[in-house]
Design a protein that fits this description.
binds adenosine-5'-triphosphate, Rossmann fold, binds magnesium ion, 6 helices, 7 strands, 7-stranded parallel β-sheet, alpha/beta, single chain, about 200 residues
């Protein structure tokens, strides 16, 4: 059975769909990959026709059927609100990624997502990924300490605010940007390690 990776954060615009797309694009070089789009606005689904390296599926079937899908990796992109599906999606996920920007308000907003994950007893499977970090800045201690109380894993790899990530969904991945590609490769490795692959 394939690995299910849920990307969630109830805050809009933190990079859920962009990160999902790029991780799927990176992994599909060596594996079969599907992205299930649970966002009714269907932002990734709109790219369906453009993408032939992996499948993008606007998902409307029962969540119970996801386990029967025959892919090595199944990414689930979620909408910017706490959908009713979330507890069940958290239950079936092998890994839960929570992309966030590094602002205080972004971190305050993360709490409700983390509380649901804790309620479902899946905090061990969850990992925060800092995204859109300004180039040449480091995370301040107060940001990292703010997360400490949640006892949640934090990815060592930080994803920078780079135009190649913005463009990636139009040009089918990172093109000619070593820095962005390295970050994506490092995060992919961390994900595979966390999944024990
Ligand atoms: N690492 C990055 N560098 C630069 N721009 C980024 C990065 N990640 C995302 N973006 C840009 O930020 C915006 C929001 O990203 P995206 O749509 O992926 O967020 P989202 O969390 O899926 O939003 P929503 O919750 O509304 O679905 C987009 O314009 C995207 O191109
Ligand atoms: Mg999105």
């Amino acid at each position: 059975m394939g690995k299910i990776i849920l990307i969630t954060h109830q805050k809009g615009g933190v990079g859920k769909s962009t990160l999902t797309f790029n991780l799927a694009q990176n992994l599909c070089k060596n594996a079969t990959v599907a992205v299930l789009d649970f966002d009714l606005q269907g932002s990734l689904s709109r790219l369906k026709e453009m993408t032939d390296d992996f499948d993008i599926i606007p998902y409307q079937d029962s969540i119970d059927l996801i386990n029967d899908l025959e892919y090595n990796f199944i990414f689930i992109d979620t909408p910017p609100y706490l959908s009713n599906h979330l507890p069940k999606l958290i239950q079936i996920a092998d890994l839960i990624l929570i992309p966030t920007k590094a602002g205080i308000l972004d971190l305050l907003a993360i709490e409700s997502t983390i509380n649901i994950i804790k309620f479902e007893n899946k905090i061990e499977q969850a990992m925060v990924v800092f995204n859109m970090i300004k180039v040449n800045t480091t995370l301040t201690m107060d940001i990292l300490m703010g997360l400490e109380e949640y006892n949640i894993k934090i990815a060592n790899t930080h994803i920078s605010d780079l135009v190649s990530f913005t463009r990636s969904v139009l040009v089918k991945g990172i093109k000619n940007d070593r820095n962005a590609q390295n970050q994506l490769d490092n995060l992919t490795k961390e994900i595979l390690t966390t999944l024990l692959i």
